[in-house]
Amino acid sequence: MPTATDARLTLAQWLSPAYPTGGFAWSHGLETEVAGGRVADAESFEAWLADVLEHGLGRTDAVLLAEAHRAAPEELPALDAEARAFAPSAERLAETAEQGAAFARTTAAVWGLDLPPLTHPVAVGRAAALMGLPLPDTLALYLHAVTASLSSAAQRLVPLGQTEAQAAVAHLAPLCARLADEAESRGRDELSSAAWAADIAAMRHETLQPRLFRS
Amino acid sequence: MPETVAPGAREAVQPPRARGAVRFSVRAARGGSALATFRHAGSLRAVFPRVRPGGAVEAVLVNTAGGVTGGDRFSVEAAAEAGAALTLSTQACERAYRAPPGPPGRLSVRLSAAAGARLAWLPQETILYDGAALERRLEIDLAPGARFLMCEPLIFGRAAMGERLTSGEFRDHVTITRAGGPIYRDGVHLSGDIAATLARPGIARGAGAMAALVLVADTAEAALPQVRAHLPETGGASLLAPDVLALRLLAPDGEGLRRALLPILDLLTDDSLPRAWRL
């Protein structure tokens, strides 16, 4: 069991934008919303991201991560298959599958873990369990990393200033903490999402021209 | 309710709740498909209108209780055997009424399609009234090579009355498996001030109706551009796999939703959409 400080440092590394998961390439459909004028400034971006966290990706990924953290090794393939089946569009599936595979590759190589390619939350949950890293911190930092990554995408797309993007991350940190708490008690059967507008934007991104991001 | 009712007795003084179950299967028959087995119980029935020769068996579900409220239990189980074709729809919109305190109304649908079978789940709209408590579970099991189409339209409140969902609880759980593994999974949980949630920019931007459609067919990839051509800006479609197409659509109200869905359903059913959808 690592010390609390060791655990936090490992999580800080895994969930930093410098970790080579390619997170900078994905906008989660935000690019469509910016192109359509529906996200146009810091305020509209924060409202959109709050919904994605609370009713979409944040909520579902937190449940999947927590389930992966608890899962026995033989339960992982079925959990990962469910995570893939829950993806609402082709690009959103690629977003979680490719970031998860890249995370697993690097983490397996550096820490010598047996970590096959998994969707992003399942890979992080499994790696954290293998390393004995506590679930609450893993959940909170994972959600914070999603927030930071999409805020960075907004900085390039909307565009937002650096200060505005960092303010968005700060404003949404308490929501990340709350979602992390709630996810610990939710099971796979309770996977749910109502971020339909965000999902539709991700579907429409497939035919958006021109585009910078892969989702 | 009189104040003399003891705590805990509330459930006992509620009127009896509706129960209904329909279970049947369809087999391939010479020149088409035919009903193989059929059972029903309670307030759920199925009628089988005559369809064009060689077409799918069409089952129209009828809720004789007139809707769903707290404590109701309805279940549908249907199987399309190898090479058979079955289309299920409903005679009317399903109304989820304001529910008394206690357990929600539960609706469970389990469908299966064997190799070479064609299965469609095309209920008319479910309308959530303010204060509704509804829990739905839809489980589809497909053999490799089975074709499946589903469309689930949902309306949030009676728009004609200006109704807003300021309270209520709605849970939805959808799983499509093929050869034991999930190929599509959806879940929804809305509660409390649902209208306020729907107003949000990442949720529904104030839309009053939503539909989810899934097509599992080897023609899915070819159908995608045609499906997209029919979609308004508030809808999207994508391939989750080369033979799995998923669509999500928002509309201001039920009428707008149906208007947008009809050409897509005509396309994906080869113009054999159940008549109930036309009325």
UniProtKB/TrEMBL annotation, chain A:
<keyword id="KW-0996">Nickel insertion</keyword>
<dbReference type="GO" id="GO:0005737">
    <property type="term" value="C:cytoplasm"/>
</dbReference>
<dbReference type="InterPro" id="IPR002639">
    <property type="entry name" value="UreF"/>
</dbReference>
<comment type="function">
    <text>Required for maturation of urease via the functional incorporation of the urease nickel metallocenter.</text>
</comment>
<comment type="subunit">
    <text>UreD, UreF and UreG form a complex that acts as a GTP-hydrolysis-dependent molecular chaperone, activating the urease apoprotein by helping to assemble the nickel containing metallocenter of UreC. The UreE protein probably delivers the nickel.</text>
</comment>
<dbReference type="InterPro" id="IPR038277">
    <property type="entry name" value="UreF_sf"/>
</dbReference>
<protein>
    <recommendedName>
        <fullName>Urease accessory protein UreF</fullName>
    </recommendedName>
</protein>
<dbReference type="GO" id="GO:0016151">
    <property type="term" value="F:nickel cation binding"/>
</dbReference>
<keyword id="KW-0963">Cytoplasm</keyword>
<dbReference type="Pfam" id="PF01730">
    <property type="entry name" value="UreF"/>
</dbReference>
<keyword id="KW-0143">Chaperone</keyword>
<comment type="similarity">
    <text>Belongs to the UreF family.</text>
</comment>
